[in-house]
Amino acid sequence: MTIATVHCDRTDPIATVTLSNPGKLNAMNATMWQELRHTMLRLAEDADIRCVIVRGAGEVFAAGGDIEELREARATVDSALAYHESVGQVLQAIQQLPQPTIAAIQGPCAGAGLEIACSCDLRIAGQSARFGAPVMKLGFSMYPGELAGLLALAGPALTKEILLEGRLLTAADALSKGLLTRVVSDDDVQTEAMTTAQRIASGAPLVARWHKQWIERLMDPAQLSEGEKRASFAFVDSDDYAEGLAAFLEKRPPRFTGH
Fold this sequence. Notes:
Elements: E1 5-11, E2 14-20, H1 30-44, E3 51-56, H2 67-73, H3 77-95, E4 101-105, E5 108-110, H4 112-119, E6 122-126, E7 130-132, H5 144-165, E8 169-170, H6 171-176, E9 182-184, H7 189-201, H8 205-218, H9 226-231, H10 239-249
Parallel strand pairs: 2-3, 3-4, 4-6, 5-7, 6-9
Antiparallel strand pairs: 1-2, 7-8
Helix pairs in contact: 1-3, 4-5
C-alpha cells in the first residue's frame, strides 16, 4: 500500500519539502495539503532555516489534485467551499513563509502543483517540465483563493491563456512568459535548486526576510507611512549589518548569525 505524504528533510540552513503520492503523479489530497500547511508553519518558526526547497518525489512535481477525492469533497457547495478554503490557507502559508522558497520542478506541474509552484519565490524547472491547469476539461473552475497566486505571478493575459485554452506549456514557453526563474537540464534541477538555496543562505537571513516583506508591501499601491520608511532601516541595529560591513572592509567572507 502506498501512502501519500509530505516529507521534510533538513540540512541546516536549508529545508527540503517533498510532495509524495506514489502512483498518482504526486497528486495532492486533503492529508497532503494539511501536512504541507503544518510543515510550512513549523518552518516559519525555525530561525535556523534560511531557505526552503519544495519538490516532488521522483521525476514529477505534482500533476494536480486527487480527482477521486475531489468528487466526494465537492458533494455539496458547503463541503467544496470548506475543502478549497483550506487549500487556499496552505498556499497562503507558503507565500507568507518568512524564508525564501524555491520550487524545484521536474515533469508535470499542473493544477494544484502549479498553484504550489506559483506560491514559491523562485521556480527552477527541467527542460521536460510541463505547466498548466486544464480544469476546463474536467468541468470545474479554479477556486479564487487558489487562482490568486497564479494571477499575481502570471498576470491576467497568461492566466487567461492557461485557464481558457487548457493546454500545457513547455518549460521554454513558461520561461519566456515569465512563469519561471530559470530552466536547466532535467538531471540538473535538484543540484541547481540546492546551489541556489545555498547562495541565498549565504546572505544575511534577516535581509532576505526583509526583502520578501518589502516586496509584498510595495505591491500594495498605498503610500508608505513615515513609520514604515523608518522600519526599512531596522538593519542598522543588527549584528549582521555590522558583520557585513566588517567583512567587506577586511576582505573576508561574512559570518551572518541572523541577529
